Structure formats: C-alpha cells, structure tokens
Amino acid sequence: MKIVKIIAWIALIAFVVVQFFQVDYNRSETVPQTDFMLVNNVPAMVEQSLQVSCYDCHSDNTDYPWYNKVQPVASFLEDHIKEGKEELNFNEWGNLSDRRKNSKLRSIINQIENGEMPLNSYTLIHRDAILSEAYKIAVIDYMKKLKDSLE
Q: Which pTM value belongs to this model?
C-alpha cells in the first residue's frame, strides 16, 4: 500500500509541475485579406458551417475551451491545431495557387462526404460543430462550384 501512495504523490507532483509549461496559443486579432471568407463570395449557411466546424483548427484564430488551460490537454490540442493548419489554413487561402486550391477543395469535399471532418474527437465536445445533412450538402455543393470555377 505504501508504493501506491508514493506513486500517487509522484503523479500529483508531476501534474502540478507540468502546469507551468504553457503553450503558444493560436490567436490573431486580425483577419487577413487572404482569408477564405474574404476571397470568396461565401453564402451565409456555408460561412457559418465553416466558422463553427472548421476554423478552430484550420485558421489563425482558435476559440479555446476552458480545459485548454490544463496540461497535458493544452499540448494535445495545440498539436491538433498545428497539424490542421499545416494541412489547410483558411486564413492563407488567397495565397494558394489555383492548382493547390483545387486540391484542397477536392480534399474538403471528400473528407466531408466520408464523415472524416470535422473530427469525431472535436465534435464529441463541440456538438454544434456536427454538420447536419443540409449543412453538409450546402458546404459540399459550394465547394464543388468553387472547384469548377478554378478549372
């Protein structure tokens, strides 16, 4: 029983110590002119869907939940956001070539159709980010039209 107490104390101390190591938050006060919403004429329904379901991980401004102040959760979330932005950052859309935009649009369409995005781990806590069938159709149709305009 003594070993269990020692392990519990070590775990508690480690948890407290790790709280002092905070991450750099993904926050920007401005929306660049290259943002997807500014570059394209996005319908309100699609804009709302993207803002709620995509922009936390795929832009330069994340709306963080309360639990992001607790390590190691903060590091886990920042890794997800970093990966998401490396794959697609909607704030940098205007800087992409038409070929790259076309590729990203194909990927967006496929991932929404296959239910891969938004991630289940995200929608588990952010229930409002779940895309209804109507919203999925609206986003996919818009992305297809945008893709066709680039070809």
A: 0.80
The Cα 84–Cα 50 span in angstroms is: 14
| Per-residue confidence (pLDDT) for residue 43, from 0 to 100 | 95
- Whether the link from the prior residue into 72 is cis, omega within 30° of 0, is yes
Query: What span, in angstroms and rounded, lies between the C-alpha atoms of 46 and 50?
Result: 6
- Which DSSP state fits 81? H
Q: What are the tens digits of pLDDT across the range 98-124?
A: 999 999 999 999 999 999 999 898 898
Residue 116 within a domain: yes
The reply to whether 103 falls in a domain is yes
What tokens were used for 144? Answer: 């297809």
Q: 19: Cβ–Cβ under 8 A, 6 or more apart, which residues?
A: 70, 71
Domain span at residue 38?
24-150
H or E stretch at 23: none
Specify the number of domains making up the chain. Answer: 1
